[in-house]
Amino acid sequence: PFLRLLEAQLQDQRRDHEEEVEALRNEVDAMREELEKQQQAFLQTLQLSPEAQVEFGLQQEITRLTNENLDLKELLEKLEKNEKKLKKQLKIYMKRVQDFEASQAMVPAERRQHERNMQVAVQRKEKDFQGMLEYYKEDEPLLIRNLIT
């Protein structure tokens, strides 16, 4: 059983490695093709007159900026869509809070006092825990901000 487990892990690692090597080969091939295209374009521009070289350079820059603008527009659309989604969620949560506050206003004072006592007990239990905290590196700014507030 142990050898089979090791064998299976080794096969998984080999498969992952082969997939990674294949992806890297494809990336190298794509880069090689791009380099060849750039070399061809460079050689063509060397054969052009200085005015034509400037015009060609401007066309290349316009193409690059157009592609960059398209990427930025796509990103903007995603962010706007996410903003709308978050605004809807905020409205829902605000409504829930208002409903909860309204229901709390109707609850007898004794029950509210009992709930407060339970909250205090829970808070005290939480304060008793001390120790190490595990977190992801990319969550560090959020964690620090939450600790400060």
Automatic annotation (TrEMBL):
Q: Which residues form a coiled coil?
A: 3-103
Q: Name the UniProt key words of this record, in alphabetical order.
A: Coiled coil
State the protein's name: Unconventional myosin-Vb
Classification from the root reads: Eukaryota, Metazoa, Chordata, Craniata, Vertebrata
